[in-house]
Amino acid sequence: MASRKDLFQSYQSSVRRLVSGLVLREADPARTPLRRMGGAVFGSVMVAALTLAVAGVIGVVRPGGNTTWQTSGQVVVEEETGARFAYLPDADGTQRLHPVPNLASGALLMGTATTVQVSAASLAGVPRGPRLGIPDAPDSMPAPDRLLGAPWTLCSTPPEQGSGDEVPDTQLVVGRSTTSGDPVDQAAVLVRDVEDGSLHLVWAGHQYPVPQEDAVLEGLTYRTQPQVQVGTAWLNAMPAGNALVPEPAEGRGEPSALAGAVVGEVRVVGSGEGAQYYQVTRGGIEEITAVQKDLLLADPSLTSTVYVGRAVEPVPLSAAEANSVPRAELAERTDADPPAQRPEPAAVTSAESTVCASFTGAAQLPEVSVQAEVAGTDIAAATGGVGADGAVLADSVVVAPGGGAVVLAQGSGTATTGGLFLVTDAGVRYPVPDEDTLAVLGYAGVTPVALPSSLVARLPAGPTLDVTDARLPL
C-alpha cells in the first residue's frame, strides 16, 4: 500500500506535467517552465538593488541637483535651516541667491509670499548676492483666512493684587468683544488718568476732559460717584470731546442791557422739561444748556459777584423780556460737545473696576462697559507701554496665534482714506504703502477693517513694508 509521501509526490508530478502541458505544450520537458520565471524574478531584483546602490553612491559623491526652484519665482526656504533667500538677477543679468532676514522681505523682493522648500545641497554652488531686506519685518504673516475683523476691545484693568504694580494695565484685544460686563449705554462714567491725574467724563462713546473738577462734581452731583482708575492709553484711544467746563460771561456782576439783571446771572424761560436757560451778558442774553446752567451755578464766587445776598438759582424770565434784548442762540451741536442734559451715572461698583471700550469700525463710536472681562487674554504680548516715538501704547496686545489683521486706520469716521497696516500675532502693526504692496504680501482682494487711528496707534509699530526698502543691502 502506497504511503502518504508517495501519494504527495505523485500529486506534485501530476501538477507539474499539467502546468508544462499548458505553458510549453509538452508534458515532460527538459526544464520546468517556472524555473525560468524564478530566474527572471531573481535577476530583476538584483538589477534594481544594483541601481539603487549606484544612485546612493552618486548622491554621496555629488548631492543635490534640483534646479526647478530657480524658475518658480517663489521665496526660497532652505529645508535644513529655514533660511530665506530671494533668487534675483543682478545688473549684468547673473542670477544670484540673496539671503533675506525674514519672509516679508523675501515676498517684497519676489513679488509673492509663497515659498518653495529646497535642500541645502541643491543650493550649494549657486552664486550668492548681498543680503537684502528690511530688518525687523515679520517672519511670519497671517494667512488670509486667519485675518481678524472687528470688534477690537481696549480694556483698562486694575493691577493684580500682590503684583507690585500701582497703575492699571491697558490691554488691547484684536478681533474680540467683551464676554461679560455692564454696558453703560447713555449713562456716564467718571474716569481718572492715574498717570497725569486728570479727570474725564465718559459718555456716549466719548471722553470729555474735566479740568475744573469741583464745578462738575458739585454742579452735576457726581461727588459720591466712583472715579475709575484708567491708563493713559485707554483714554487716548477714546474719541475726545470738548472739555466739560463752565463758560462764564465776561464782566460778571456788571450791569446788563437786560433790565434788572447783572452779567453772569442765569435766567430761565418756562419750567420742567421744556425749560430754556440763558446766561445774562453785557449786551443781552445767550442760550445755554441745562448742564452749563448747573456748572455755572456751582461756582462759589457767584455769591459775591452775581447773586449777592440772594439764592444762587435760575431767575424766571418772561418771553417778552427775552425778546426785548439781543439773544445769542446755541450753535448746532456736534458729537464733540459735552452732554446738554445731565447724564445719569453708570452703576460702577468701585474705582478699581475694569472698563472696556469695544470698537466696531471707524464710523461707529465705541461701546463702553464696566465690570467687564474679555476671555482668552492669557496669550497677551507685552509692549513696554511706550513706542520708539514716545507714543503711549497699550501695555499688552492679544492676537490669536496665527491670526492677524489688515487695518485701515482713519482719523475720523467721515474720512475716506487712511493708513494701511498689517498686524501680526506678535501684536505689532506694520505700515503698508498701498494696496498693490498688500497684494504682494498675499492679501489681494482683502477688505481692510476700518478703525480709528487713535486706537490703532496703541499698537507698537514695526518698519514700513516697502518694496524699495526691501531692495536695500543690509
Automatic annotation (TrEMBL):
TM stretches of this protein: 40-61
Gene3D superfamilies listed in its UniProt record: Type VII secretion system EccB, repeat 1 domain
One GO CC annotation: extracellular region
Span list, region Disordered: 322-349
Source species, domain of life: Bacteria
This protein's UniProt keywords: Membrane, Transmembrane, Transmembrane helix
Keyword flag Transmembrane helix: yes
InterPro entries for the chain: T7SS_EccB (IPR007795), T7SS_EccB_R1 (IPR044857)
Keyword Transmembrane: yes
Pfam family, any one: T7SS_ESX1_EccB
Signal sequence region: none
NCBIfam families found in the cross-reference section: T7SS_EccB
PANTHER family referenced in this protein's UniProt entry, alphabetically: ESX-2 SECRETION SYSTEM ATPASE ECCB2
Name of this protein: Type VII secretion protein EccB
Lineage, top ranks: Bacteria, Bacillati, Actinomycetota, Actinomycetes, Geodermatophilales
